[in-house]
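Researcher: Batch entry, complex prediction.
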Amino acid sequence: MISPHAQEGFDLLLIRSLKASLPSALEHSEIGITSDVAGLVEQEAVVLTVSSYLFRLMVMIHFKQDATTMAYMAGMHEAGTEGHDKQVFLDAIAEYGNLFCGILNRELGNYFPHIGMSTPNFLDGHCLSYIQMLNCSHIQHFAVDVDGSPLFHVSLCVSAYDDLDFEVAEDEASASTGELELF
Amino acid sequence: MAQILVVDDSATVRNEVGDFLKKNDLDVVLAVDGRDGLAKLKSDSAIKLVISDVNMPNMDGLTMAEKIRSELGNSNVNIIMLTTENSPMMKERGKAAGIKGWIVKPFKGDAVLATFKKLVA
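Model: Structure tokens for the complex:
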């Protein structure tokens, strides 16, 4: 069983990771919990998992291959006009998933030291219909809007192997990134 | 001219890092995973710095670092990991393999360029 505190903690860390993974130059974004997933228009999803011996969580980033999303990803990775190429776009969104889930993995590592993350995989968007069959202890969906328009949705599914309880402080800061730590 | 080997299974990261280094007058070789990186390093003695991801198919970055030292017997090349991972256990394994440093993604070129240039000088 996952305690209410732990469920809130997973949600909070996921939102924090999403915010940290969106580039500061494109910061006009809003991330909110949504239950309205029946009408999702995204056709594909990037899927990553984070596992410990106490739980396994799956993150699905539901995205569209439309001009807005492609332009956003191209801008994020400074891909220029290449961002309109389909394979470049898919690689960019997979790397975005890797980056975002990597932040979540590091945040969770503060509470669960023995933790590991998968590489990104693609799933057909229709797989969302079968998510309940995973019998997860906690499922939450998030809408990510940029400049007032929906960019993508994210689903979080957590399966616990034992009772799980931890509490996340709302004002904890994320670790710094991009700096070279010399040994 | 000294070369920098960039190893990552993501083309996005390879291009982002590679393009940044080229724009700053550094010579770059790209590899798609640890196995490819090892082969490139074997055949190119001008490589002085390896910047590598950790989690990759076929061969991960830490295994590649260990093989650079043990199989290639190359103790001179500098190795820096560029990864989303930040676990102390992985860093310890990297240190044991003689890696020089660790960068948590995303890549911020301006923050590390001066050090990269020193390492290939």
